[in-house]
Every structure is written in C-alpha cells, then in structure tokens.
Q: What sequence folds into this?
C-alpha cells in the first residue's frame, strides 16, 4: 500500500489501494489455477522480481513476457467456456443509452464488424468496458494498435464521468531503434518495451557520454518511479540534443541475463545488439493512461448498467502515477468485483427491456459509407492518416513529459483547428454524421481523448506525479484532489463528442 501511494504522489484512493493489495494474491492464485505459468525459484516457490518504486521483491512474472502469458491463459479459458461467445474483429462504435429521469442507462453497444463491414447492434442490460488505454494519441507508444482510447471516448459521449486524464505515464525505457547497429526496415507500429525489471535487476542508465545520470536526479537512482526516470531521461536528451540514452545490464552474468530477459535479448539480437555485452538504446514512450472512466469499488460508473475494468477505468488506485505492475493486478481485481453487481443488475432490472423497446425506435443506425465512391473513401482514408500523425505530433510536442500553460493552450487551439478541418473535409465529401468506418471512428476517439488530456492538464495548477508543468513546478497540498470531467452538453459539439445513434433520423 505504501509503495503504491508514494508512487501515486498521494493522490491514490486509500480504500481502493487496500482492496487491490488485499485481494490481489487470490486473483493470482486463480490465474495459476486457470493454467497461467509463472517463474519459480530453485526452492520451488514463485520467483519474485523487483521493479522501480517497489521496496521489496514481490512481482510474480513469466520471464519478461508476463502479460503475454496471462493473456494466453485467459484466452484459453474463454475459448473453452461454452457460455462465452467471442465476436472477433468487432470495433465498438458507441454505447446505446437512454434517459430514465435524471439517470443515464446503458442498454448495449453498436459495433462494426471490421471484416464484413457490417454494423451489429448488441442489446444488453449490462456492459463492461475493458478496452485498454489511449497510447496512440502519441506518435510513439508501447501500446497495441487498438489502443486508440475507444472505451474512454465512448463512455464520455455516453455521459460517463472521466477522471485524471492528465496523468499519462511514459515508460522511461522503450527500445530506441535509432541506436541499434542494424536499423529496422520500417517504423514499428508500436514501440518495443524494455521492462522495468531490467533496472530492478541492476541495469544502469548512461547518457551517450557514458556518464551515469540517475544519481543526479533522485536518491533512489535507477529504482526511482517511472515519472522521475522518464523526466530525467527527457532532461538528458534535451541537454545533449540526443535521440536516446543507454541502459546497461551487461555487467551481470550472461546466463542470468538470458534467463531473465529472453524476449528482450532475442529482439535486440535481431538488430545486431547483444545485451550481454552492449548497452541497450532506450527512449521514453507513451505507455499507460492512469486516468479514465471514473469507477467505484465494484467497477461501476455513474451510467447505470455500465462497468469498467483495466486501463479504461480510473479506480483511484494509481493516483498521479502508476506503480510498476499494478496494472495487471488492478484489471484482475476489478473485473472480479464487477461480477456480482452485474448479476444483480440483470435480475433486478425487469423494466430495462421496456426502455429498450421505447428507445430503439429513436436510435439512428450507423451505416457504412457504401454510397460514397471508392476514390472518395480512399481520399478520406489518406487524409485521416495524415491528420492522425499531425495530432500525435502536437501531443508529443506540447503535451509530453514536461508541460507549460502556453504549450497546453497552443495544443488546445491547434487540436480544435485540426478537428474542424478534418470534419469539414469529411462532410464536404459526402460523409454523413451516422457513417462509420474503422479509421474514421478511431480518429474521432483519438481526438476526443487528446482533448480530455489537454483540458485535464490545464485544470491542474501544480506538478504532481506524471503531470509536470514548468509554470507550477511544485506540489500543492491544497490541490491534492482528482481531476473530474463531468458529462457535457452535445449542443454545438464536434462529431467526436456526439453519440452516433443520437443523430437526427432523416
């Protein structure tokens, strides 16, 4: 608990931290029972690693591919359960909502089958978002390609409360392709992560002059929390006008390095780098969104029937900066906690389907742009790709690791202009507000999340955790409160801020 709260710059919700720390071990035992295979020491017990910000060795892992192993075990369990139906390659367009007095109620989701280009409407009394983060609002991210903030944007449009979006964690050490002996033939779609455990295992950070620099910034040196290490690297890059720094683990025994970090060693060797002999070129990359859809202790949101778990959620666990490895733990704990309340919702809401009958007549159906010429669609796709790159570069340039009020205001203005330009381009070419396509819908969500990050950052007049601004460089006890973004009116709003099914039916 203490390590989590210290890393979170005392913005964590203490009850949430207690719940996760208390229930976490049982969730890990359940994973093992499901077939997840974790590393064991010579004594037969689980091998526990240590990462930045942790005072003890306590992290269960599967070599340097823990997330992959957990996902493998969970997917296998899902496939083998006859009661679970998986709809692959379906993209969530918008949540379906209705008003019940002052309450917003979620009644399902519209989705796009990306393979068949067919819109599918799922009606449900209970919906749980587990859609991950929004790393692709930045040009370089460790996140998978699908992390375009879709769940956060859908929830925001559906009147869910959003919290703490200014706290974007940049992982301090992603592989810097520019520093590899053999350059990758094309730009990576997502950055390759050099795990925190390399520093936990004794890895040392050097600048290109081979000067060790972390002791200049923090007494915890390489084991300082991620926000401190990322800012320190950023400072070194700016001072030397360099593209990367170096992370060296080569002083450790070769066999130990290869057994602890087989995946990293193999990836680097592909490009001519032997990590048992040479330092690894690293650079910060967008990694984790500490903010998201505001959730209670059961994963519930202010929208009835809507639950969240994982990175899409803001439970209060991470505060202003997530402690290493707490992401997987939080996802497990809150997914489990949402089970019983969602069952209760199913049983206790007989009136819901009556509401669906009433609402569904007024919901517009999203349509694919089959009425547009293929040349027009191609032009729209090309323009959307350019706009996305432009937005990402604005975010990196003005809303990165170190911020200022002027730069944030510049970002706000330029994003607004870019969004108007993009939407005007679409609609002038015959795109309708109810039209959907994967790239256009992702772009709309990227715009939505980028604006949420900028407005949250402008609202915090202090530096805390991952949010560092030169205009308010100190921590202010009076400002130790979460940032809250309440639902907004959709009047005069942009396409990215409006639910598609709420468009007028022609």
A:
């Amino acid at each position: 608990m203490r390590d989590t709260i210290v890393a979170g710059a005392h913005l964590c919700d203490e009850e949430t931290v207690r719940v996760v720390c208390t229930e976490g071990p049982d969730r890990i035992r359940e994973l093992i029972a499901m077939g997840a295979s974790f590393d064991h020491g010579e004594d037969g017990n689980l091998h526990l690693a240590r990462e930045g910000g942790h005072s003890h060795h306590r992290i269960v892992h599967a070599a340097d591919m823990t997330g992959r192993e957990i996902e493998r075990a969970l997917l296998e369990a899902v496939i083998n359960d006859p009661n679970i139906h998986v709809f692959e390659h379906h993209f969530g367009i918008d949540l379906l909502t209705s008003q019940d007095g002052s309450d917003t109620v979620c009644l399902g989701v519209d989705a796009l089958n990306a393979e068949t280009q067919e819109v599918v409407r799922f009606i449900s009394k209970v919906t749980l978002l587990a859609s991950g983060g929004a790393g692709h609002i930045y040009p370089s991210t460790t996140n998978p390609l699908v992390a375009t903030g879709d769940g956060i944007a859908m929830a925001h449009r559906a009147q869910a409360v959003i919290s703490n979006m200014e706290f974007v964690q940049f992982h301090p050490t992603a592989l810097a392709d520019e520093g590899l002996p053999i350059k990758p033939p094309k730009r990576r779609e997502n950055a390759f992560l050099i795990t925190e455990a390399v520093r936990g295992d004794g890895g040392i950070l050097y600048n290109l002059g081979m000067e060790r620099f972390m002791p200049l910034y923090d007494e915890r040196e390489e084991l300082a929390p991620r926000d401190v290490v990322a800012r320190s690297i950023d400072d070194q890059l700016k001072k030397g006008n360099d593209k990367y720094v170096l992370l060296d683990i080569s002083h450790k025994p070769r066999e130990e390095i290869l057994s602890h970090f087989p995946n990293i060693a193999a990836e680097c060797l592909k490009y001519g780098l032997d990590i048992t002999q040479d330092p690894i070129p690293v650079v910060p990359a967008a990694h984790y969104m500490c903010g998201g859809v505001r959730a209670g202790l059961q994963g519930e949101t202010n929208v009835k029937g809507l639950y969240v778990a994982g990175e899409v959620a803001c439970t209060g666990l991470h505060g202003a900066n997530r402690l290493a490895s707490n992401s997987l733990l939080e996802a497990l704990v809150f997914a489990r906690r949402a089970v019983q309340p969602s069952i209760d919702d199913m049983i206790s809401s007989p009136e819901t389907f009556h509401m669906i009958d009433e609402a569904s007549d007024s919901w517009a159906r999203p349509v694919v742009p089959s009425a547009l010429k293929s040349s027009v669609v191609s032009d729209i796709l090309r323009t959307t790709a350019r706009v996305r790159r432009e937005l990402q570069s604005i975010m990196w340039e003005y809303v990165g690791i170190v911020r200022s009020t002027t730069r944030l205001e510049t970002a706000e203005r330029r994003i607004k202009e870019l969004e108007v330009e993009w939407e005007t381009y679409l609609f002038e070419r015959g795109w309708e507000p109810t039209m959907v396509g994967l790239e256009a819908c992702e772009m709309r969500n990227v715009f939505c999340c980028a604006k949420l990050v900028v407005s949250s950052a402008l609202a915090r007049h202090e530096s805390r955790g991952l949010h560092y601004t030169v205009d308010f460089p100190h921590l202010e006890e009076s400002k130790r409160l979460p940032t809250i973004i309440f639902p907004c009116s959709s009047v005069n709003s942009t396409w990215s801020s409006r639910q598609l099914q709420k468009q007028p039916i022609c």
Observations:
- Residues 47 and 221 are 24 Å apart (CA to CA).
- The mean pLDDT is 93.
